[in-house]
Amino acid sequence: MSVETQDYINGMRQGPLTREIPECMRNKYTVVQAIIDVIMFVIVGIGYVIKATYQSIVGKHKKDLKGAVAVVTGGGGGLGSLISLRLARLGCTVVLWDINKQGLEDTVKLVKGIGGKCYGYVVDLASREDIYRVAKKVEDEVGRVNLLINNAGVVSGNYLLDTPDHLIQRTFDVNILAHFWTVKAFLPSMIEHNDGHIVTIASMAGHVGVSKLVDYCSSKAAACGFDEALRLELECQGINGVRTSLICPYFIRSTGMFEEVNSRFVPQLNSNDVADRVILAIRTDEPFALIPGYFRILLPFKWLVPWPCISDLIRGLVPDAVPVPTGPRAAPTPAPAPAAPAPAKRGAGAMSLLPPARHDRHV
């Protein structure tokens, strides 16, 4: 595409027909052109809707993942380990990243136990330098990565004014900033080969606010924006072989993060069901998946009804996201927060085969 054509598309240069139209007629021509653009958008949009409806009825084609090299962050347990097992069964070479060394070793054994090929790397996802270092090591030792699953996440679970600054920083380092560094590490190779898939495990908390999860909701909302903007950026550059998928599940059981959430009407999700849904989204190149699916119908009402309705609904649906006993919140950890970095780093993985001790989520 020539520079002149690109400038015309971006509205920076007049088209050849516009230059031939008298000055007094150009405003009318612009109006006609805008009407034509709207009509074309409606026609194309209807085509997309028909195609999506057809695919939802007959099903989408599932791509073959055999031979792919997949990096799964937070792969030392929980949802990350379940996704890894499914990828291994599909023939992927699985590369696990986690801060929890024991969890990594356990998951690597599980994957190898079903005949899969798996590598584990201890990575501090709150450290940009560590991410870049291990990413280079993976490409040298395992090969080109063409499937990246940003799954790791942490939660502090306090009211904002009760949350120490270093926990807020850790939440954003792991839940969103790590996505920037992993994508910047692996995306250039994906673009070069026009082949790749980036999966962002976000949350329904990225679409609605929840009390005691101010830092968590903010980081997940950023993850949702990150995926959408990245997808558009790739499309604008004409990169069609690199896909992205955004996964937004409700609270999940057995991940060590929301075991005690007080949820009404909507039950907590089974982690195996969520893992299956993630794999389906990957194999069908699904842009985004809300879990459970009926939230896709309910979510638009957030912008259509008055705020008091939304507030009452959210508070009724999730009376308490992190119900902890009142009393000495820091009793399990007698040392002051700054003096206990080890548990905090273990929590950075947020995924272990066994649910972490309660205080691991708060230091």
UniProtKB/TrEMBL annotation:
Keywords attached to this entry: Membrane, NAD, Oxidoreductase, Transmembrane, Transmembrane helix
InterPro entries: NAD(P)-bd_dom_sf, SDR_fam
Residue intervals passing through the bilayer: 29-50
Compositional bias annotation for Pro residues: 331-341
A cellular component term, taken from the record's GO annotations: lipid droplet
Region described as Disordered: spans on this chain: 327-363
MF GO annotations: oxidoreductase activity, acting on the CH-OH group of donors, NAD or NADP as acceptor
Transmembrane helix in keyword set: yes
SUPFAM superfamilies to which the protein is assigned, alphabetical: NAD(P)-binding Rossmann-fold domains (SSF51735)
PANTHER family: FI23927P1-RELATED, PKSB
Family stated for the protein in its record: Belongs to the short-chain dehydrogenases/reductases (SDR) family.
Name of the molecule in the record: Estradiol 17-beta-dehydrogenase 11-like
Organism this protein belongs to: Trichoplusia ni (Cabbage looper)
